[in-house]
Amino acid sequence: MAVPEHDHGGHEHGHHHHHTGQGRTLVIALLLTLAFAGIEAVAGWWSGSLALLADAAHMLTDSSALGLAAAAAWLARRPPSMRHSYGLVRAEVMAALFNSLLMLVLIGFIVHEAIDRFGTPRDIAGSTVIGVAMIGLAINLAVAWVLNRGEHTLNSRAALLHVLGDALGSVAAIAAGIVIVTTGWTPIDPLLSLLVATLILVSALRLLREVMHVLMEGVPLNLRLDTIGQDLARLDGVLRVHDLHVWTLSSGTIALSAHLEIRSLADWPGILAAARRLMDTQHGIRHVTLQPEALAAQPLLRGDWPPRAGGSQG
Prior knowledge:
It is a single chain. The protein has 314 residues and is an alpha+beta fold. It has two domains: 14-215, Cation efflux protein transmembrane domain (Alpha-lytic protease prodomain-like, Up-down Bundle), CATH 1.20.1510; 225-294, Alpha-Beta Plaits (2-Layer Sandwich), CATH 3.30.70. The protein is built from eight helices and four strands. The chain has helices at 20-47, 50-75, 90-119, 126-149, 154-183, 188-215, 225-233, 268-283; strands at 10-12, 238-250, 253-262, 287-294. A four-stranded mixed beta sheet has the order 1-4-3-2. The longest helix has 30 residues, at 90-119. It is elongated and about 80 Å long. The model is unreliable at 1-19, 299-304 and 309-314 (pLDDT under 50).
Protein backbone atom coordinates (compact mmCIF):
# COMPACT_ATOMS: atom_id res chain seq x y z
CA MET A 1 0.00 0.00 0.00
CA ALA A 2 1.35 3.39 -0.92
CA VAL A 3 1.89 5.94 1.82
CA PRO A 4 -0.71 8.71 1.44
CA GLU A 5 0.66 12.18 0.75
CA HIS A 6 -0.51 15.23 2.68
CA ASP A 7 -2.65 17.50 0.56
CA HIS A 8 -2.31 21.12 1.69
CA GLY A 9 -2.50 22.81 -1.68
CA GLY A 10 1.20 22.32 -2.36
CA HIS A 11 3.55 19.84 -0.74
CA GLU A 12 7.10 19.10 -1.77
CA HIS A 13 8.46 16.02 0.02
CA GLY A 14 12.13 16.82 -0.62
CA HIS A 15 14.29 14.98 1.93
CA HIS A 16 17.99 15.61 1.32
CA HIS A 17 19.33 12.34 -0.09
CA HIS A 18 23.03 11.84 0.60
CA HIS A 19 24.98 10.21 -2.17
CA THR A 20 26.32 6.69 -1.71
CA GLY A 21 29.84 8.05 -2.25
CA GLN A 22 29.55 10.27 0.80
CA GLY A 23 28.46 7.33 2.97
CA ARG A 24 31.44 5.30 1.77
CA THR A 25 33.83 8.18 2.53
CA LEU A 26 32.42 8.56 6.03
CA VAL A 27 32.68 4.83 6.71
CA ILE A 28 36.38 4.82 5.68
CA ALA A 29 37.05 7.80 7.95
CA LEU A 30 35.12 6.11 10.77
CA LEU A 31 37.10 2.85 10.54
CA LEU A 32 40.46 4.67 10.51
CA THR A 33 39.55 6.84 13.48
CA LEU A 34 37.94 4.09 15.55
CA ALA A 35 40.81 1.64 14.98
CA PHE A 36 43.43 4.10 16.12
CA ALA A 37 41.34 5.23 19.11
CA GLY A 38 41.60 1.67 20.42
CA ILE A 39 45.36 1.51 19.77
CA GLU A 40 45.90 4.87 21.44
CA ALA A 41 43.85 3.88 24.49
CA VAL A 42 45.96 0.74 25.00
CA ALA A 43 49.19 2.70 24.49
CA GLY A 44 48.03 5.38 26.93
CA TRP A 45 47.24 2.80 29.58
CA TRP A 46 50.58 0.99 29.06
CA SER A 47 52.69 4.17 29.04
CA GLY A 48 50.81 5.80 31.90
CA SER A 49 50.01 8.90 29.82
CA LEU A 50 46.72 10.59 30.60
CA ALA A 51 47.28 12.83 27.57
CA LEU A 52 47.15 9.78 25.30
CA LEU A 53 44.07 8.46 27.11
CA ALA A 54 42.40 11.86 26.76
CA ASP A 55 43.26 11.99 23.06
CA ALA A 56 41.92 8.45 22.64
CA ALA A 57 38.67 9.58 24.28
CA HIS A 58 38.55 12.54 21.90
CA MET A 59 39.06 10.23 18.92
CA LEU A 60 36.29 8.01 20.26
CA THR A 61 33.91 10.96 20.26
CA ASP A 62 35.06 11.79 16.72
CA SER A 63 34.29 8.21 15.75
CA SER A 64 30.80 8.67 17.16
CA ALA A 65 30.37 11.86 15.12
CA LEU A 66 31.57 10.10 11.96
CA GLY A 67 29.30 7.15 12.72
CA LEU A 68 26.32 9.48 13.08
CA ALA A 69 27.16 11.12 9.77
CA ALA A 70 27.48 7.73 8.06
CA ALA A 71 24.20 6.57 9.61
CA ALA A 72 22.52 9.76 8.40
CA ALA A 73 23.70 9.06 4.85
CA TRP A 74 22.16 5.59 5.09
CA LEU A 75 18.95 6.61 6.85
CA ALA A 76 18.31 9.38 4.33
CA ARG A 77 17.88 6.67 1.67
CA ARG A 78 15.28 4.78 3.69
CA PRO A 79 11.76 5.37 2.31
CA PRO A 80 8.90 6.63 4.49
CA SER A 81 6.48 4.05 5.82
CA MET A 82 2.94 3.91 7.18
CA ARG A 83 4.41 4.13 10.69
CA HIS A 84 7.06 6.77 9.94
CA SER A 85 5.84 9.20 7.31
CA TYR A 86 9.14 11.11 7.43
CA GLY A 87 11.24 7.95 7.48
CA LEU A 88 13.73 7.40 10.31
CA VAL A 89 15.68 10.64 9.94
CA ARG A 90 15.19 11.61 13.60
CA ALA A 91 17.25 8.58 14.70
CA GLU A 92 20.31 10.68 13.86
CA VAL A 93 19.16 13.39 16.27
CA MET A 94 18.59 10.93 19.10
CA ALA A 95 22.01 9.38 18.51
CA ALA A 96 23.57 12.84 18.55
CA LEU A 97 21.91 13.53 21.91
CA PHE A 98 23.38 10.30 23.31
CA ASN A 99 26.76 11.15 21.80
CA SER A 100 26.87 14.61 23.39
CA LEU A 101 25.95 13.23 26.82
CA LEU A 102 28.62 10.52 26.45
CA MET A 103 31.21 13.21 25.72
CA LEU A 104 30.29 15.01 28.95
CA VAL A 105 30.85 11.77 30.90
CA LEU A 106 34.27 11.34 29.26
CA ILE A 107 35.19 14.91 30.18
CA GLY A 108 34.31 14.24 33.80
CA PHE A 109 36.57 11.16 33.80
CA ILE A 110 39.51 13.04 32.26
CA VAL A 111 39.20 15.97 34.69
CA HIS A 112 38.97 13.61 37.68
CA GLU A 113 42.06 11.69 36.58
CA ALA A 114 44.00 14.89 35.86
CA ILE A 115 43.30 16.31 39.32
CA ASP A 116 44.29 12.99 40.90
CA ARG A 117 47.60 12.96 39.02
CA PHE A 118 48.53 16.43 40.19
CA GLY A 119 48.55 15.00 43.73
CA THR A 120 50.15 11.66 42.88
CA PRO A 121 52.47 11.96 39.84
CA ARG A 122 53.18 8.76 37.88
CA ASP A 123 56.03 7.62 35.70
CA ILE A 124 55.29 8.19 32.01
CA ALA A 125 57.01 6.63 29.00
CA GLY A 126 57.55 9.87 27.11
CA SER A 127 59.05 8.28 23.99
CA THR A 128 56.04 5.97 23.63
CA VAL A 129 53.71 8.94 24.01
CA ILE A 130 55.54 10.83 21.24
CA GLY A 131 55.54 7.87 18.83
CA VAL A 132 51.88 6.96 19.28
CA ALA A 133 50.71 10.59 19.18
CA MET A 134 52.65 11.20 15.95
CA ILE A 135 50.93 8.22 14.36
CA GLY A 136 47.62 9.59 15.64
CA LEU A 137 48.32 12.97 14.09
CA ALA A 138 49.10 11.27 10.76
CA ILE A 139 45.82 9.31 10.99
CA ASN A 140 43.87 12.50 11.73
CA LEU A 141 45.41 14.29 8.76
CA ALA A 142 44.67 11.29 6.53
CA VAL A 143 41.03 11.21 7.67
CA ALA A 144 40.76 14.97 7.09
CA TRP A 145 42.12 14.48 3.56
CA VAL A 146 39.58 11.71 2.88
CA LEU A 147 36.70 13.86 4.13
CA ASN A 148 37.89 16.91 2.20
CA ARG A 149 37.92 14.93 -1.05
CA GLY A 150 34.33 13.74 -0.52
CA GLU A 151 31.07 15.58 -1.02
CA HIS A 152 30.95 18.80 1.02
CA THR A 153 27.69 18.55 2.96
CA LEU A 154 26.77 19.82 6.41
CA ASN A 155 27.47 16.35 7.80
CA SER A 156 30.90 15.99 6.23
CA ARG A 157 31.95 19.53 7.17
CA ALA A 158 30.95 18.95 10.79
CA ALA A 159 32.85 15.66 10.82
CA LEU A 160 35.89 17.42 9.35
CA LEU A 161 35.83 19.98 12.15
CA HIS A 162 35.75 17.15 14.70
CA VAL A 163 38.78 15.51 13.12
CA LEU A 164 40.77 18.75 12.94
CA GLY A 165 39.99 19.34 16.62
CA ASP A 166 41.28 15.86 17.39
CA ALA A 167 44.49 16.65 15.51
CA LEU A 168 45.06 19.39 18.07
CA GLY A 169 44.72 16.74 20.79
CA SER A 170 47.43 14.67 19.12
CA VAL A 171 49.66 17.75 18.99
CA ALA A 172 49.07 18.25 22.73
CA ALA A 173 50.08 14.64 23.44
CA ILE A 174 53.24 15.05 21.34
CA ALA A 175 54.10 18.22 23.24
CA ALA A 176 53.60 16.41 26.58
CA GLY A 177 55.87 13.58 25.49
CA ILE A 178 58.62 15.97 24.36
CA VAL A 179 58.53 17.91 27.65
CA ILE A 180 58.67 14.69 29.68
CA VAL A 181 61.58 13.26 27.67
CA THR A 182 63.61 16.48 27.75
CA THR A 183 62.84 17.78 31.26
CA GLY A 184 61.17 14.95 33.16
CA TRP A 185 58.40 17.35 34.23
CA THR A 186 55.37 14.99 34.37
CA PRO A 187 52.70 17.56 35.43
CA ILE A 188 52.64 18.66 31.78
CA ASP A 189 50.70 15.44 31.04
CA PRO A 190 47.59 16.21 33.16
CA LEU A 191 47.83 19.91 32.21
CA LEU A 192 47.57 19.14 28.50
CA SER A 193 44.92 16.52 29.26
CA LEU A 194 42.79 19.30 30.74
CA LEU A 195 43.38 21.27 27.54
CA VAL A 196 42.08 18.35 25.46
CA ALA A 197 39.12 18.00 27.84
CA THR A 198 38.32 21.66 27.21
CA LEU A 199 38.36 21.05 23.44
CA ILE A 200 35.95 18.15 23.90
CA LEU A 201 33.72 20.24 26.19
CA VAL A 202 33.37 22.98 23.56
CA SER A 203 32.35 20.42 20.92
CA ALA A 204 30.01 18.61 23.31
CA LEU A 205 28.17 21.74 24.41
CA ARG A 206 27.83 22.97 20.82
CA LEU A 207 26.45 19.60 19.71
CA LEU A 208 24.09 19.40 22.70
CA ARG A 209 22.76 22.89 21.98
CA GLU A 210 22.09 22.03 18.33
CA VAL A 211 20.42 18.72 19.24
CA MET A 212 18.11 20.35 21.79
CA HIS A 213 17.26 23.09 19.29
CA VAL A 214 16.23 20.46 16.73
CA LEU A 215 14.22 18.45 19.26
CA MET A 216 12.40 21.63 20.31
CA GLU A 217 11.46 22.22 16.64
CA GLY A 218 13.47 25.46 16.56
CA VAL A 219 14.12 27.44 13.40
CA PRO A 220 17.54 26.36 12.00
CA LEU A 221 20.24 28.61 13.42
CA ASN A 222 21.41 29.69 9.96
CA LEU A 223 17.93 30.89 8.90
CA ARG A 224 15.74 33.85 9.90
CA LEU A 225 12.00 33.30 10.08
CA ASP A 226 11.16 36.94 9.35
CA THR A 227 13.32 36.97 6.22
CA ILE A 228 11.68 33.80 4.91
CA GLY A 229 8.21 35.24 5.59
CA GLN A 230 9.03 38.50 3.85
CA ASP A 231 10.43 36.66 0.81
CA LEU A 232 7.23 34.63 0.49
CA ALA A 233 5.06 37.72 0.97
CA ARG A 234 6.85 39.54 -1.86
CA LEU A 235 5.85 36.93 -4.43
CA ASP A 236 3.46 38.17 -7.11
CA GLY A 237 -0.10 37.34 -6.14
CA VAL A 238 0.62 36.82 -2.41
CA LEU A 239 -1.24 39.18 -0.05
CA ARG A 240 -0.12 37.88 3.33
CA VAL A 241 1.75 34.97 4.95
CA HIS A 242 0.73 33.45 8.29
CA ASP A 243 1.13 30.25 10.30
CA LEU A 244 4.72 30.10 9.06
CA HIS A 245 6.80 27.32 10.60
CA VAL A 246 10.36 26.26 9.74
CA TRP A 247 12.09 23.38 11.50
CA THR A 248 14.80 20.74 11.04
CA LEU A 249 13.81 17.15 10.32
CA SER A 250 17.41 15.91 10.35
CA SER A 251 20.85 17.15 9.39
CA GLY A 252 20.52 18.80 5.99
CA THR A 253 16.73 18.36 5.81
CA ILE A 254 14.69 21.47 6.60
CA ALA A 255 10.89 21.62 6.44
CA LEU A 256 8.55 24.58 6.00
CA SER A 257 4.80 24.99 6.26
CA ALA A 258 2.77 28.17 5.81
CA HIS A 259 -0.59 29.61 4.79
CA LEU A 260 -0.49 32.05 1.86
CA GLU A 261 -3.37 34.46 1.38
CA ILE A 262 -3.76 35.08 -2.36
CA ARG A 263 -6.08 37.03 -4.65
CA SER A 264 -7.32 34.11 -6.70
CA LEU A 265 -6.89 30.33 -6.68
CA ALA A 266 -6.33 30.57 -10.43
CA ASP A 267 -2.93 32.10 -9.63
CA TRP A 268 -1.95 29.28 -7.25
CA PRO A 269 0.02 26.96 -9.61
CA GLY A 270 2.39 29.78 -10.57
CA ILE A 271 2.70 31.03 -6.98
CA LEU A 272 3.41 27.52 -5.70
CA ALA A 273 6.15 26.90 -8.28
CA ALA A 274 7.73 30.29 -7.56
CA ALA A 275 7.60 29.70 -3.79
CA ARG A 276 9.25 26.28 -4.03
CA ARG A 277 11.97 27.64 -6.29
CA LEU A 278 12.58 30.61 -3.98
CA MET A 279 12.78 28.50 -0.82
CA ASP A 280 15.20 26.07 -2.46
CA THR A 281 17.57 28.58 -4.05
CA GLN A 282 17.56 31.27 -1.34
CA HIS A 283 17.19 29.27 1.87
CA GLY A 284 17.99 25.62 1.06
CA ILE A 285 14.48 24.46 2.04
CA ARG A 286 13.20 21.64 -0.17
CA HIS A 287 10.44 20.13 1.98
CA VAL A 288 7.71 22.75 1.53
CA THR A 289 4.02 22.52 2.48
CA LEU A 290 1.90 25.54 1.50
CA GLN A 291 -1.83 26.16 2.03
CA PRO A 292 -3.53 28.71 -0.29
CA GLU A 293 -6.31 30.94 0.99
CA ALA A 294 -8.18 32.98 -1.62
CA LEU A 295 -9.07 36.42 -0.24
CA ALA A 296 -9.96 38.40 -3.34
CA ALA A 297 -12.48 40.49 -1.41
CA GLN A 298 -9.88 41.75 1.10
CA PRO A 299 -7.53 44.38 -0.42
CA LEU A 300 -4.33 43.78 1.57
CA LEU A 301 -0.89 45.15 0.79
CA ARG A 302 1.45 42.67 -0.86
CA GLY A 303 4.52 41.96 1.28
CA ASP A 304 2.67 42.47 4.59
CA TRP A 305 4.02 39.31 6.24
CA PRO A 306 3.39 39.76 10.02
CA PRO A 307 -0.03 38.39 11.00
CA ARG A 308 -2.88 40.66 11.94
CA ALA A 309 -3.52 41.38 15.63
CA GLY A 310 -4.60 38.20 17.31
CA GLY A 311 -3.30 36.13 14.38
CA SER A 312 -0.87 33.25 14.49
CA GLN A 313 2.84 33.54 13.76
CA GLY A 314 4.99 30.46 13.43
